[in-house]
Amino acid sequence: MTPTPVGMRCPECSRQRTKVKTAATITHGGDPIVTYVIMGICVALGLGSMFSGGDWLSGNLTKLDIDFGLFGPSVADGEVYRVVTSGFLHAGPFHLLVNMYSLYILGSMLEPMVGRSRFLLIYFAGLLTGSFGALLENPTALTRGASTAIFGLMGAALIVLRRRGIDPMQSGLPLWIGINLVLTFTLSGLSIGGHIGGLIGGTVAAAALYELPARIRTLPAMLAMVLAGAVSVAAVVGSIAIA
């Protein structure tokens, strides 16, 4: 027997290299096109906010925020589209920069791994459950930002990495989520309900896509996607009820 870093192994086995799974080795390949498109929309709307009236550079409300941000009374009046559009608006350039950097990191890892359709299901599950959480916390506050969906991506990434044989602890994601949760509860101006709601929504959607099929072998892949989409539908219904 030969001593190795992983214990005693036979001479033949000790000369073999163990294959290591990483996010890069299990992707489907291709560029994260959906991630880039979402980033482009957010940046374009940031520029639109800057020129729509109001001091966007200082993080103040602009006309786009007032017309498309998440606001319970407006949702109650029939402007349900706000639960979606609010996730593409940001309170100033710093808010936009931080969220787009996080989206780029997570999207570049997760989208090639799960495919574009599943990525969209997870993204909007996080966004819409985040809107529901924000309204549940304070329906009369005007909120906006992609952080709800980004929290959803973080929760989903934990599920996907674990199902693909990668230890989530080694990815650094649990620490990243923990730091963001601490900031959520300590910094003023951040939507606690939105972040928690997004985290739960993205995690549940990913569980429907990956955990359920692993446990129920007969579950059709299309039904798993329908269940993941149902998370978004339930969040919209809940948002209307809360508003």
Structure, described:
This protein has one domain (28-242): Rhomboid-like (Rhomboid-like fold, Up-down Bundle). Helix 6 runs parallel beside helix 8 (147-163). With 243 residues, it is an all-alpha fold. 67% of the residues lie in helices and 2% in strands. 41% of the residues are buried. The protein is globular, with a radius of gyration of 20 Å. It has helices spanning 11-14, 33-51, 63-68, 72-76, 82-85, 93-114, 116-137, 147-163, 168-171, 173-186, 192-215, 221-242; strands at 2-4, 7-9. A two-stranded antiparallel ribbon has the order 1-2.
Topology:
Elements: E1 2-4, E2 7-9, H1 11-14, H2 33-51, H3 63-68, H4 72-76, H5 82-85, H6 93-114, H7 116-137, H8 147-163, H9 168-171, H10 173-186, H11 192-215, H12 221-242
Helix pairs in contact: 2-6, 6-7, 6-8, 7-8, 7-11, 7-12, 8-11, 11-12
In short:
The chain is mainly alpha-helical.
User: Per DSSP, what share of the residues sits in E-state strands of 2 or more residues?
Assistant: under 5%
In CATH's first tier, which class applies? Mainly Alpha
Low-confidence stretches: 18-27
How many helices in DSSP terms? 12
Mean pLDDT: 88
List keywords for this structure.
mainly alpha; two-stranded antiparallel sheet; about 240 residues; Rhomboid-like fold
